[in-house]
């Protein structure tokens, strides 16, 4: 069983990077889905990171791929999905990259959606929630073929 802690969209609120690690010290992986607005790349040490639409000065990839217990996972910020037919665009990206789990941010709204063998996870925003959601991050657990997600509220 592996634990992946996922955050996104802290928009320069740098204390959130350490807050999440302190709250989840037993994580196997820490993922940042973009829009950290970190002053420098080293602030993101320990995170698998991608570039968000507000990370202008950071030299980060637009997408990252890794595998956990044989499950291929893709990370992207999500600004290119649009708001109409969003899930179709997400599915297209997953299938083109031969992945089963998509971790993304951008909307500032938590989401956990399963569509057959595909999973779409957005941790929400640690700093600027939208749509009536709370400030949050996600804890994704992969145990063999079982994938679960729990959203953690930031007090």
Automatic annotation (TrEMBL):
Its EC number is 3.1.4.-. Pfam families: Metallophos_2. Keywords: Metal-binding. InterPro entries: Calcineurin-like_PHP_lpxH, Metallo-depent_PP-like, Phosphodiesterase_MJ0936/Vps29. Its cofactor is a divalent metal cation. It comes from the Bacteria. It is an enzyme of class 3 (hydrolase). GO terms for molecular function: hydrolase activity; metal ion binding. Belongs to the metallophosphoesterase superfamily. YfcE family. This is Phosphoesterase. It comes from Longibaculum muris. The lineage of its organism: Bacteria, Bacillati, Bacillota, Erysipelotrichia, Erysipelotrichales.
